[in-house]
Design goal:
This protein has one domain (5-84): Methane Monooxygenase Hydroxylase, Chain G, domain 1 (Up-down Bundle), CATH 1.20.58.110. It has 3 helices and no strands. By secondary structure, the protein is an all-alpha fold.
């Protein structure tokens, strides 16, 4: 465990950041799951709105450094292709 004052502060900050990143990642995964479910149902309108929401969350997570930009871009591309196929 950290013994220096600066190290204990850094440990506290890491806990907060890890919780925030975990929450962001969980929201993104849930949005992707909902988008894929809407695509599987074949409802174009619902799928389109779900994909837009997932894309928004993916881009936000990327800008905050939670996800790598190429990972988010790849997932957005795959969702968009799936919606276009409907």
């Amino acid at each position: 465990m950290a013994t220096h004052k600066s190290a204990t502060k850094r440990a506290r900050q890491d806990l907060v950041r890890r919780a925030r990143n975990r929450d962001q990642r969980s929201r993104v995964r849930g949005a992707i799951r909902q988008a894929r479910a809407a695509i599987a149902l074949g409802d174009a309108g619902e799928a389109n709105s779900a994909v837009r929401r997932a894309e928004s969350l993916l881009r936000r997570a990327t800008s905050k450094g939670v996800l790598h930009s190429k990972t988010a871009s790849r997932q957005i591309s795959r969702l968009a292709k799936a919606v276009q196929a409907l």
